[in-house]
Structure formats: structure tokens, C-alpha cells
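hey can u check if this looks right to u? its 621 residues, i copy pasted from the old doc so theres a chance i mangled smth
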Amino acid sequence: MNKLTMKSTDLTQVNIDKIVELFPNVITEARDEQGTIKRAVDFDLLRQELSDYLVEGEKERYQLTWPGKKEAVLTANCSIDNSLRPLLSDSVNWDETRNMYIEGDNLKVLKLLQESYLNKVKCIYIDPPYNTGKDFIYKDNFVASEDEYLEESGQVDETGIRLFQNTESNGRFHSDWLTELYPKLKLARNLLKDDGVIFISIDDYEMHNLRKLCDEIFGSSNFVTTIVWQRAFSPKNDAKYFSANHDYILVYAKNIDSLNIKLLPRSEESNNRYKNPDNDPRGAWTSGDLTVKTYTENYDYPIITPSGKEVFPTRGRCWFTSKENMLKLIQDNRIWFGESGDNTPRLKRFLKDVQDGMVPLTIWLHEDVGHNQEGRQELKKLFDNKGYFDGPKPTRLLKQILQIANCKNNDIILDFFSGSASTADAVIQLNSEDGGTRRFIMVQIPEQINESTEAFKDGYKTICEIGEERIRRAAKKIKEETGADIDYGFRVYRVDSSNMKDVYYTPDSLGQLNLDDVATNIKEDRTGEDLLIQVMLECGLELSLPMESKEIEGKTVRYVAGNSLIACFDDEVSESVIKKIAEDQPLRVVFRDSSFQDDSSRINVEELFKLLSPSTEIQVL
């Protein structure tokens, strides 16, 4: 039997395993902070393995670095023993829904989801804090004092002597932001499918740093584009220099070669650009340039217009095809010389050939995808004309993102800065329009609401409470307006400490007296549902899978997705109950140590499963 760790994945060890497969010779041993011998990587030797020249010391190279970067890398890789606890009373249609809302620090949530949602998320949209100095609370002690920053950045030595003048007074500000965001993006990338894509809203404050950060995490070759979104339409006359009316949306693919961007539906305005002045039987058309800037001498030749005039390509350019093919296009009436027959030739492009849709543009106007005020008005309409958020994104913007990302049936959309839950609203809207089964995972830290605000006076204590209520109200509205038979529910989970006591993780650190006093390694306030969720996370099972409980001879037996996982956390489970569990031939089965009376009973269980369900993986906690 294997003992469950009841921790998130240790990504450092996962990375070392990958290195072992390629370069076993660079693996060595080292003592950790507790003096325990652990595997380690000889990085000097690894650098040599990856170089075709002799490596001697550090070399200058192009990279993004900041005080706290090593801490951010370590933070991303280390495991945690937190758990997710189900909140059935806050959920909607728990048994049937496949959507989720998770309350908690998004870094912890991303770590907890690593096994269950590895390579499963189709699209991530996040609207992280823009680092304007007004809207960000740094977690996990990432805020450094000025003295700490100066020492980390090399501007003072350990004795406090200033090494050089600090001309970048804002450096600590950017460093904290980068340190906060780096591990989250690194973990988020693991969750994306191979054809997955991430969209990140940002403004001018950190656009330059975010681009470099994403180049490092996703790879510069996986950069797709930068979208400019017109978030405001009226000028601010009190602006000091320019009235900013746009934000950016950075787009990165998990694997650019697998990315499949969906074309947008053609608008009436776009179709109206196509005319048919020569009554071509193939229908309406528009014309395009015949030249290209990649010069080829063979494609530089004269074209004779119907009026007899010779036309050459613009200097430094050439025609897009050979002379032979050009003559065929002219004979097929696919080259337009103007009504007079004397103009520069252009290629006819027919509407019937482009009906599948339009390639998305990189400038998104508010007329097409909405603006900040529209997002605010949407929220006010749901909450009796009360605007609890300053700048929620309009659902039209998010729906366009999800359409371009090519999110289809059963695809998962993740937003781990979910705020007012506009993304969940957009997913439900899209599903109601086409009968889809897209799923959402919203993650939001339960930030306390200021007691002086209207939201607090209306009974909302945290941002999560507003977000969850927004989904309930939006779903109700959409169902009433459309009647669509789709998933309107969501399961709510909350990040908490481990279900297990410290003795579970460090049994050797407790003295004999303490061990005798510990009757169970599970915390007294935790339920079987709590334990099941933590087990599911370690086993890599999605938290939206169907769960049911059965009573077998007075013992509670829990089933996940049929026989994908069967768990019984009761004490002293009889052989007859275990036999009935084995007869269901589960892929995995989990018991507690106390489920067995003694070592003999444990051995009997193993023998019983070998006989009745030999492929079952047996685990204990």
C-alpha cells in the first residue's frame, strides 16, 4: 500500500526527474536545511552538457532579472499541504454542475490544481493588478523594506555601505510586482493544453515588464500578439499629458504550432465593403495589392493593361506570382484594372471565398467589444443599480476572447484573478447562445470589503461573496431570457490548511507521550468530504467529477466518477465491506490507517484486492 503525501506536487523534484532522463551524470546529492540527504543537480556540469564550448564562470547574457527572482522561482516549485474544502451551501446544483468557484490565494490554488488540471485548460484570462500603486496588496511577504531591497539589488553591502547611487527610486515597486506574478504564470502555463492560450489584461505601468516576463515563462516564440482595447471613449480633459483610453491584452500560446485561432463572424459592415462593379457572376468582391516586398527578380515583369499601358511593380517590390500565373488570372477575370481599364492592376477577392469569418484585428474598438462603463452597467443591472466594482470587464470583451481562443464543448476556461466574475458570466452567455458545454474555474482571494462601502452595508463581507452572487444572478437572468438547457451551476471550494495534523507529515518529530495523546492524524473539524477532495487532488482527479456516498454495513463509502476512486475513511472497516468495495473493481481505493484493526488486517486487504481487483491501486492516509 502507498501512503498519500497529502501535499501539492513538488515541482522541483518533477524537474529533476526530467533532467535525470536526459543527463543522469549531473545528478548528485546534497543536504537540505534539516540535514537530510536529497538529490540535487550539479549545475556547473549541466551547463557544460548544454554548451559546445568550455564553460568557465558566469557570462553576461540577455535576461530579465530583479531582486527576488530566485525567491519567485523557489516559490513556484515548492509544495504546500493546503487543502480545498467544499462549500455545499454556497454552491448551485452541486451534483450536476461542472463549473467551479474557488475562494483563496491564487498561488495556493494553482499549486493545488497542478495534478488534477495538468494540460487540461483551453483558455486562461486574467486581469491582474496593474501596479498603479492603488490597487495591489502583496501576499506571502513579498513586500521588501527599502533596506532589504537595497541589499538584494546590490546597492548596499551587508554592513549598510551604499555601493552606488540609487537612481531608480521605483525599482522595489516593480520587483515586488514581478515576484508576485512570476510563480503564478509559471504554474498557470502547466495547466494549459498544448493548443491552449492565455490572455492577460495590462496597462502602460507594467506592460514592458509583463512582456519580458511572459517571454521567459512561455517562450518568446509563443508570443501571439498584443491587443489594444479601447476601454474608454470620452477624453479626460484633466489628464496631464494625454488622455489614456486604452489597455493592452497580451496573448501567448502554450505551443504556437498547435494554436488554432478561430475566425470572427463577418459583420454586415465588413460584407458591405464587397461590391460587384463589373457584374462578375461569381458575386461581390473587393480588390487587393498584387505586389510583395520580398523581391524576386523573376516576378519583376511588366503587365499590359487593357488600354495597352505597361505597368511595373513599385520600386523595390515585385508581383506576388509568376508571369505565367498572372496571365491565367487575367484570363479568368480575377485582375481588376479599374473601370477605365487603365489603372494599376489589383487582385479580386470574392466574398464567397471568405464567408468562414474574419481574421481578428489587434485593435478592438468599444463599439465592438464594449468599454469599462459598459462592464460597470452590466454589474449594476444585476445588483439593483448598485455598482460594487470600479472597472469590471464587459462580457462582450470576454466573449470575443473566448471565441478567438476557439473554446468549444467541455473546454475549461480559467480566471485566477476573477474579481466580479465577468468571465463566468461570459462563459454562461456563450453556452446559452450555442448550447455549448464550456466550463469555468474562477479563483479569487476573499479580500475583506471596506465597512464604509455600499457593498458591505448590503451584507457582502468579501469580494468572493459578490462574485458568487453575480454568477447566481447572471445565470438566473440568462435562463429566464433564453430558456437554454445548459449548466447554470457551480461548485464552491475554499482554500484551508491541511486536513491532516502535523503528526501526519512529521511523525518522528513527536515524542512518545505526544504520540500516545494523538488518537487520530486527522483534524477533528474535518469531514469525509474534506478528506475526499484532498485525496482527489493528489490522485489527479478533476474536482467537477460526480461524487456519491453509499452506506455499506454502517460504513460510509464514497465514490468518485463511478469506480475511478472509492474511499472509506471510517475506523475498523470489516472484511465484508472491503470485499464489496473490491467487487466494484475501483481504479484507486483509499482507506485510513485506522480502517484496519492491525497489520494482519492490512495484509488481508491487499490479498483480497489481488484476488478480486488486481489492477486497483491501494492507498492509505
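The longest helix spans residues 171-191.
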